[in-house]
Structure formats: structure tokens, C-alpha cells
Design goal:
Number of helices: 6
Oligomer: single chain
CATH class: Alpha Beta
Number of strands: 7
Shape: globular
Number of domains: 1
Helix content: 40-55%
Length: about 250
């Protein structure tokens, strides 16, 4: 018996590094999963890996910046499983628009705001009505340590992630009376393929650039997923918190 038995979980960016590791942990605890990703092949590969391990998972193709796609991902989850208990918002991007604000283009600013903040708003907007129909649910958003402390050279990454934390607190206050618990986790650097590619690119293009790889967590490691027990088992008002990724060898 897992503590997520009979929980229906929709994970965005479902084919990515952190998302795939999260999905495996949730499946191990008995959750049934819908993995949504703009890259349908990556989402299906992640779902197939979970099924091969004895879990239950399906894939949905969805662009988290397109409202109709977000609505469809939620609808496909409910059509497949009959309900939606948990939404994990993991869409995000790091590495575009480096430098101070005087060097950031308007195009990069808008895109980073959309991918890191608007995606959370859209997915939550369409997931919450289904949770209300079912008597409650859980949403876990993904921030970053850069959202709570200044980090030189990446203002347009930390800024929308700080918006995620503010949005999380506001949604939590709006919906906790209807038994929807909403939290945010703020990991530090985690060596997904995306971050590894960014760091290697910087090493190629910047003089005297050195990366201490041991300072980063690994998405493949982890003990337990964020607590998503049924809403009636929790009486605390949700909030956001900072969690440093473990350093692993």
C-alpha cells in the first residue's frame, strides 16, 4: 500500500528530468499518472518506463502556454481516470536572457515570464474546477532558491519564479476552505539535461568559467515526493517553502 494509492496526478513537463523522477516516485507510491508535455515522444517514453515498472501512466501532448492545450490536458486526465486529485506544475526554463536587465531583450523577458509563471496560472486555472468537483485536491508548484534570494546574471529567471511563490500563496488562501491544498517547493540547481546543456554552453563561451558539478542535486535521486496526501488529512494552511537539493556523488 502506497500513501498515494488511488490518487490521480497530472504532471506538467512530464518528459523532463525532474518531472520524470517525480513521476517515478509517485508511481512507486501508488499514484496513477498523466504526463503532459509539449514533446509528446518524451512524455510517452516516460509513461512507458513507468508502465514497464508496474505503474500506471499515460501521456498527453500539451503546450502549457496555450490555454486550450492546458484545458485539454486536464480533460484527458479526467476522461482517462474519472477525476483529478493532484497537479504538479513543473514547466519551467533556465538559461535564457543572461546578464543584467540592461542586457535582457524584451522578447526574452516576455518568454521567460510566460514559461515560468503563465504556465502555472493556466494549468491551475483549468485543474482547480475539477478538484472542486471532487471535493478537494493538491497543487504543488515549482519555484527556485533564486526566487527568494538575489542571483547575479539571471534576473528574468528568479523574477517569474518569485511570482510563482506569490501566486501559490494567493491561491492557497483562496481555496483552502474548499480543501484544495497548494504549496510550492524551491529546489536549488538540479542537474537535468536542460541545466547541464546551459552550463556546458557557458563553459564553451565564457573565459575562466568553471562549474563545480558536486554543488548540484540530481533529479534521479530522492527519498519521497512532496506530501500530497488526501486533503482531508491536512488541517494546516498551505504555504511555500525552500528546500535545497541534496548534493550527491
Amino acid at each position: 500500500m502506497g500513501y498515494l494509492d488511488d490518487q490521480i496526478v497530472l504532471i506538467t513537463a512530464g518528459g523532463g528530468g525532474i518531472s520524470r523522477a517525480t513521476a517515478k516516485l509517485f508511481a512507486r507510491e501508488g499514484a496513477r499518472l498523466m504526463l503532459a508535455d509539449i514533446n509528446g515522444e518524451a512524455a510517452e517514453a516516460a509513461a512507458a518506463e513507468i508502465r514497464a515498472g508496474g505503474g500506471e501512466a499515460h501521456a498527453a501532448v500539451a503546450d502549457a502556454l496555450v490555454a486550450s492545450d492546458c484545458a485539454r490536458a486536464v480533460r484527458e486526465t479526467v476522461d482517462q481516470y474519472g477525476k483529478l486529485n493532484v497537479l504538479i506544475n513543473l514547466v519551467g526554463f533556465f538559461g535564457r536572457g543572461d546578464g543584467g536587465v540592461d542586457k535582457v531583450s524584451l522578447e526574452d523577458w516576455d518568454w521567460m515570464m510566460d514559461i515560468n509563471l503563465k504556465s502555472v496560472f493556466l494549468m491551475s486555472k483549468y485543474a482547480i474546477p475539477e478538484m472542486l468537483k471532487g471535493g478537494g485536491g493538491v497543487i504543488v508548484n515549482t519555484g527556485t532558491t533564486a526566487a527568494v534570494m538575489g542571483r547575479a546574471g539571471s534576473p528574468i529567471y528568479g523574477t517569474p519564479k518569485a511570482g510563482v511563490l506569490s501566486l501559490t500563496r494567493a491561491m492557497a488562501a483562496d481555496y483552502f476552505r474548499q480543501s484544495i491544498r497548494i504549496n510550492a517547493v524551491c529546489p536549488s540547481g538540479t542537474l537535468t539535461r536542460m541545466l547541464t546543456d546551459v552550463l556546458r554552453q557557458r563553459a564553451r563561451t565564457r573565459r575562466n568559467w568553471h562549474t563545480n558539478w558536486r554543488c548540484f542535486g540530481r533529479a534521479i535521486r530522492g527519498s519521497r515526493p512532496p506530501r500530497t496526501s488526501p486533503p482531508h488529512t491536512s488541517t494546516w494552511l498551505p504555504t511555500s517553502f525552500r528546500a535545497r537539493s541534496p548534493v550527491t556523488s
